[in-house]
Amino acid sequence: MASLLQADNISKSYGSLQIFTGISLVMNKDDKMALIARNGEGKTTLLNILSGKDTADSGEITAIRDLKIGYLEQDPVLDDRLTVINQVFASTGEVATTIREYEEAISSGDQNLIDSLTSRMDSLQAWDQETKAKQILTELSITEFNKPVGQLSGGQKKRVALAKVLIDEPELLIMDEPTNHLDLDMTEWLENYLKRANLTILMVTHDRYFLDRVCNQIIELDQNTIYKYSGNYSYYVEKRAERLENMQSVTDKARNLLKKELEWMRRMPKARTTKSKSRIGAYHELKEKATGTQDAGNIKIRAGSRRLGNKILEIHNISKSYGEEIIIKDFSYTFSRFEKVGIIGKNGSGKSTFLNLVTGTLKPDKGTADPGETVRFGYFRQEGISFDEGQRVIDAVRDIAEVVTMEDGSTISSPQLLNHFLFPPARQYDYIGKLSGGERRRLYLVTVLMRNPNFLILDEPTNDLDIETLNVLEDYLATAGICLLVVSHDRFFLDKISDHIFVFEGNGRIKDFPGNYTQFRIHLQAEAKLKAKAQRSALNSPEKGKQQSTTSDKDSEKKLKDGNRHKLSFNEKQELAQLEKEIELLENEKSIIEKALSSGNLSPEQLQELSQKHADISARLDLKSNRWLELSEIAS
Q1: pLDDT interval class at 549 (50, 70, 90)
Q2: Between the chain's N and C termini, which has fewer beta carbons within 10 Å?
Q3: Coil, strand or helix: which one is 464?
Q4: 301 and 465 Cβ atoms separated by less than 8 Å
């Protein structure tokens, strides 16, 4: 297999802070690789070095000649003066330059220049590239192609940057948290795009469904050591558990041996022979093994919560609009004790507005949000908070409380609480300015939970948090005696913690779905199948002919004007009939696989094989269904 990029024994530090040392990895063609590590272990730094944005202090990076790398940074820097379409084509290639100049000519209305550039677009076959760019931007909800980048939100800029790297079609695509700022539909579109694309990928993401469905290689950076797993996220979880179990076994054996060695060390004579020196060296190695450095799986988040009374939160007919845009319309709901609700919806559908209405930080146009007397909100905002860069981590927590009362009534000191949140003692005395983005989010979470809320509101809490922290947070939320309201685009997170889902459908409508996110998607797919089946039945029913015979003269004239666009050729009619058969067969095959996947009788290897087959069939169904609809519309 051809190697595109290789890192050998690379190290990086910033001043006295050692990020990593002696790291090596290889990227082969067609690898779809994810990098997993705790916050602060150097994921983004490593991506910066591999992409060429930064350099290692030591070691060597080698790549094939003229390797074309596309890099989606976590916080991309764009040119605010450019329009969206010009930013997407802001590279130096001839096709990109021509498309950019053509778009500028269209904006200026210079007909002579348009004619000249149209000829160049034809000769370079650039139209397909421009169409592809606009399709990708549209999938990412960027439809104002001539809007200046400087007028976009931070999330929109990230999506424009994502569109740019996809359109550039690099040989190696490196992405840092690509699903941040994508709503659930966009995330699933990107997931399907990357699965089908002939790309070599290295990514950092906390989205575990995304990892499971896109990646075929996982590399874990753990305490300065790289572990490689040839498989998706499910395979990685299984094999990592085995690795940690083996390490624990080694540690247990080492502890038993250490007791014997300790006895020998204590009674050892003062004269040191060569043999005894060797044994002393072995003792110290044994001691290091017995102590063990792995604490994964033993971390617990514990925090207190205040008693909840009978009345939790009653929402009565709240509405909110901005101008003529309706955000929420006549929504009512009464919360029960310990209820955990997920919130989903497209960007801009009103999710964050709803959270602000619930907490009283925003007033509704009408209606009320009435919390009970015992309710104490804890609000983790999407935008986070501004910490004092020059303050130490421990001081930021001590400013809130020196001692925190736990759920069982016991108390814990601020340093102990930080340790539970993966801030070891040495890190607690670092300045906040030295923390990674994920570590800052984790510190923010500490400051919210240590105030002992009994109604926790989380707005996109998973952004920039590492997977291990997410696992710990999920375990806490699942068992804590609190109410929870959470907005998230992390499907795995929603599935693990939510009892039911508020679906923000747009135009002020909110639907309460009685299940988690995956159950909601299955429900939508079932509805879509019924609709498609009804459309196919209608197409072949006698009633169809009656409806066609009563077509108005106006519609008939329009069809005549539009010509062949409304007539199927013989081959297209044959294709339509064949598509109906193929779609039915694929749907049956998909249904059989879904039953097998939910049976609980499959081995990990069979699960992986069938999951991939299910994804392939779903992709083929999408393509054939879209083509069927296209031909059906022409025939109607």
Answers
A1: very low
A2: N
A3: coil
A4: no
H-run or E-run covering 86: helix 84-88
Mind listing the pLDDT tens digit for each residue in 518-538? 889 888 888 887 887 777 777
CA dist 316 → 203, 326, 333 (Å):
44, 17, 7
For residue 351, give the nearest of 465, 488, 163 by alpha carbon. Answer: 488
Classify burial at 504, counting beta carbons within 10 Å of its beta carbon; exposed 0-12, middle 13-18, buried 19 or more. Answer: buried
Bridge partners, 72 (sequence order): 175
Three-state SS letters, 213-241: HHCCEEEEEECCEEEEECCCHHHHHHHHH
CB 208, CB 467: distance < 8 Å:
yes
Write down how long the chain is.
636
Query: Comparing C-alpha atoms, which of 361, 354, 382, 358 is closest to residue 370?
Result: 358
Amino acid identity, position 2: A
318: Cα separation from own chain's centroid:
31
Give the C-alpha separation, 176 to 140, whole Å. 17
Segment 430-438 mean pLDDT: 88
Identify which of 633, 635, 594 has the alpha carbon closest to the alpha carbon of residue 615.
Answer: 594
pLDDT of residue 563: 41
What one-letter code names the amino acid at 635?
Answer: A
pTM of the entire structure?
A: 0.71
Whole-number pLDDT of residue 540: 66
* Residue 540 CB neighbours (<10 A): 9
The architecture of the domain spanning 3-236 is 3-Layer(aba) Sandwich (3.40)
Question: Which residue's entry shows tokens 């939790």?
Answer: 312
Let me know if domain 313-519 sits in CATH 3.40.50.300.
yes
Separation of alpha carbons 156 and 465, rounded Å:
21
pLDDT digits (tens, 9 = 90+) for 236-294: 888 888 887 777 776 666 656 656 555 655 555 544 444 455 545 555 555 555 555 44
Chain-centre distance for alpha carbon 623: 24
**Is residue 438 within 8 Å of residue 466, measured between CB atoms?**
yes
Q: Cα separation of 493 and 489, whole Å?
A: 8
Residue 385 has a CB neighbour count (10 Å cut-off) of 12
Domain limits of the chain? 3-236, 237-291, 313-519, 562-635
Same fold, 3-236 and 313-519: yes
Q: What average pLDDT does range 557-586 have in this prediction?
A: 66
| Higher-scoring residue by pLDDT: 130, 1 | 130
Q: What's residue 635's pLDDT?
A: 67
How many other CB atoms sit within 10 Å of the CB of residue 576? 19
Burial of 571 per CB tally in 10 Å (0-12, 13-18, 19+): exposed
What is the token pair recorded at 17?
């802070």
Q: What residues pair up with 202 in beta bridges, in sequence order?
A: 33, 174
Tens digit of each residue's pLDDT (9 = 90 or more) over 57-103:
999 999 999 999 999 998 899 999 999 988 998 876 788 888 888 88
Question: Are the C-beta atoms of residues 142 and 182 closer than 8 Å to each other?
Answer: no
Q: Which residues pair with 203 in a beta bridge?
A: 34, 175
Q: Tell me the pLDDT tens digit for each residue of 31-47.
A: 999 999 988 889 999 99
Token reading at 477: 């939320």
